[in-house]
Amino acid sequence: MITVCKVVVCRGRLSDTPELLCSAIHDRYSCRLFVPNRNVPGEVIAKLLTAASKAPSGKNGQPWRFRVLADESVQTVAAMLPNNKWLQNVVQMIAVFMDTANVYDIEKDTMAIGACVENMILEATANGVQSCWIGECSNYKDEICEILGVEKRYSLMALVAIGYGKKLSQAKRLDINDLMI
Ligand SMILES: Cc1cc2nc3c(=O)[nH]c(=O)nc-3n(C[C@H](O)[C@H](O)[C@H](O)COP(=O)(O)O)c2cc1C
After folding, report:
1. Ligand 1 centre from 157 Cα, in Å?
2. pTM for the complete prediction?
3. SS3 21
4. Which of 90, 112, 109 is nearest to 40 (CA)?
5. Protein residue with its CA nearest to atom 7 in ligand 1
6. Ligand 1 nearest atom to the CA of residue 167, by list position
7. Topology at the third CATH level for domain 34-166
8. What is residue 115's DSSP assignment?
9. Which helix (H) or strand (E) holds 32?
10. Mean pLDDT of all residues in 40-51
11. At what angle do helices 42-53 and 106-126 cross, to 10 degrees?
């Protein structure tokens, strides 16, 4: 199955993505050590958002909405997340929301937003940008949305820290055989 995936997916380049999809899948890691004050260019952020928007969604509902956070707003939000102190060095984040006014099925829409975030971070990797998916924000979603002045219909699902950084450690994975049930 893995071989089939490699043959089908890795043949050729993605239209405007500089690296192969398989490389991005294998190279991506959660970065928690970013170079301070180095911004991801706007055109690269646009690519991340475009990739995110290409995710599948139930009934093509596209429940995701985005806001790019920079500078002070990043620091304000970071200060609200006690388990992610390392965010102090981060200068940009992408906040991903669910549009609750257009929910088709909460479980399926949640899965779609997961796919959307994954597309975003793979596109980041393919463009030499490091990222970290921050789930802790869901514990404080109402407070964060209020501070950001986000309408109540949008529910904060994830923050994605983006920037240029390096890997501190390699997260281990379970053996494939141990995943089979
Ligand atoms: C839904 C979700 C929530 C996460 N929340 C956090 C978080 O709040 N802080 C953090 O540092 N990493 C967070 N992560 C990243 C995971 O810790 C990371 O993916 C996992 O340890 C595997 O490491 P890797 O991404 O480097 O392969 C989250 C990942 C997911 C998918």
Report:
1. 14
2. 0.91
3. helix
4. 90
5. 134
6. 26
7. NADH Oxidase (3.40.109)
8. H
9. none
10. 98
11. 140
